[in-house]
Model the fold of this input.
Amino acid sequence: MAEQGLTVEQAQRGARRLLAVLPADDAPWCPGTAETKLRDLAPGESPEESETPLVALAAFEGRRTTLPLAEGVEAVLLQGRLRAVADEAPVLRLRLTGPPAAVLATFAALAREAPALPPRCALPEMARALARQESPRPRRLGAPQLDPDLGVEEALCLLIGHLTEVLLWHAPIAAAGTDPVGVHQMRVAIRRLRSALRAFRPAADGPSLRRFDSAARDLANVLGPARDWDVFLAGLGAEIAAALPEEPRIAALMRAAAQRREAAYAALRETLAGPGFRALVWEAVALRELRPWRAEGDADASERRDRDLPDFAAGVIEKRWRKLTEIGPEIGDLPDDEFHALRLEGKRVRYVAELFAPLWAKKRGKRFLARLAEVQEAFGLANDAAVARALVAPLGAKGGGASPWAVGVAEGWALARARRARSRATGAWEELLAGEPFWSQG
Done:
């Protein structure tokens, strides 16, 4: 049952309930959604999913307080402890019911003053994880999967909900700063989210979506330095340190870089613990639920929302593809700024193609995305080297913590690596152009 995302809850009074604690893979999802009751179980009944007697994993002990609030909103505060044989944990959950706009406005107001966020998991899932001494299972990870039968608006809502769950899941990992995957996955989720917002602008636009996009960009700007230092220390910096293991000036450079990384993570922790991040999350939930673009958009946008999703997606990808490939096959001698701009265009195509590829046959999309990923990998290596040069340059200044000699070694190493990566990118680019885009095939 646990593998299927199911559990049984037994209250002190009342029927046992069969609950779903994880969403179906293809189901639209709103962050903060609680467990869902599938049905009540009769006395002595075992769910058909269970072939063995059920064993209690954990129990909740505490109190439930119900409070009426303004504008027809009712608050239910659950406060106490989950207790299992192996461990116990405090619980504080707030559930609001009432008119959606009023509920969301209440949560947004609360989040300005208190660390209130949608929970990362349902309470029964938290109990299962506590009893088994493991982490709760994430509700959403990676890229969302769109179904061709979805409407255009429903697809946008699915993307917003899915990617917000990814941000929520990885935020504590990023704040801890011990595993680079947290920052990396948050940045990827934001890029996917912002790419989706831009892709759907012909069908859904307006001040609310633009404000949200701006806030997501601000978060990305805080995540960026932490990710850049992670990449440098684990990549080019580690290569230099391994090549010159006895050189004290390189060791000093690496210590200075580690200090900059810690400063970047300190700034990130402050942001993730602050009201701005909470406001971003609740705004995502509000967009998902209230769909303000209906009132803020125009009649043409409404008509585009009625289009077939694959047809809408093909138009979006084709437009991005034409912009990416208008430069032609010769990219080997591009100036650095034009090469960087091409890399960014390639990234925009990749995220949009990745979002929409499930709408077509898998083999077509996989081949195209593999070729595009190879281009982006080569472009990314070149960019990482360029970023590394910019990162280490201030370390050689007075008070920077490293000698100009060590900084010069790092810059030269980065330059050589960038040249190799650009050569690789040229070959990958030619292969990409030789392939047939998956969305243009019949």
Notes: The chain has 14 helices and six strands. Residues 145-442 form a domain with the CHAD domain fold (CATH 1.40.20.10). Residues 362-392 form the longest helix (31 residues).
